[in-house]
Amino acid sequence: MDTAQHIDITPNCSLTPAGAGRLFASLCLASFSVAGLMTWLGYWPVLPFAGLEMAVLAWALKASLARRHHHEIITISDAEVRITSLDRTHRGEVVFPRHWAQVKLRAPDSRLHPSRLTIESHGRRFEVGSFLNEEERRGLARRLARLIGRINESPSL
Q: What is the pLDDT of residues 139-150, one digit of tens each?
């Protein structure tokens, strides 16, 4: 009987579309009120910069809301490790033979960057959990290492 372990990873997205709309509206109100006052006082260049600032904020909120649809499913069976990456428009899948797969938690390039968790085999590598924080990434690495094992080792599921 082929039992499989499934790990579903999703980003923590506490901002809802309604909350993003309220945040954007309140910041637009504050920014354009100040910009309108400054324009009325003769400092007209403030208004285009306020518009640019709100356009960048709208882009950032849209990107943040789109990120909440991303998730990864890691399926570990007796024979293989399958990683499925999904978002609204794309679906990608990578399969590694479990017996040869390695779990590696790579140190960051600098103090300001996060570590990288990869699953590797035969010269191929796939990063998982890029949206997790450090503690969650380390916990996932430990769990994957227990389930996948080292090279030439396939612990029972």
A: 999 999 999 877
pLDDT in tens, 95-107: 999 888 999 999 8
Strand partners, 119: 103, 126
The answer, yes or no, to whether residue 83 has pLDDT greater than 70, is yes
The pair of three-digit structure tokens given for residue 108, joined into one six-digit string: 């960051």
Task: List the domains of the chain with CATH numbers.
Answer: 5-11+70-148 (2.30.29), 17-67 (no CATH)
Do the Cβ atoms of 54 and 47 come closer than 8 Å? no
121 phi and psi, to 5 degrees? Answer: -170, 135
- The amino acid that residue 20 corresponds to is A
Q: Tell me, rounded to whole angstroms, the distance of Cα 142 from its chain centroid.
A: 19
Measure CA of the first residue to CA of the last residue in the chain; give whole Å: 11
Cα distances (Å, whole numbers) of residue 57 to 24, 87, 148: 8, 22, 42
Task: Quote the CA–CA distance of 118 and 123 in Å, as a whole number.
Answer: 12
Distance CA 54, CA 48 (A): 10
pTM of the predicted protein model: 0.73
Count of CB atoms within 10 A of residue 126's CB? 19
In single-letter form, the type of residue at position 64 comes to S
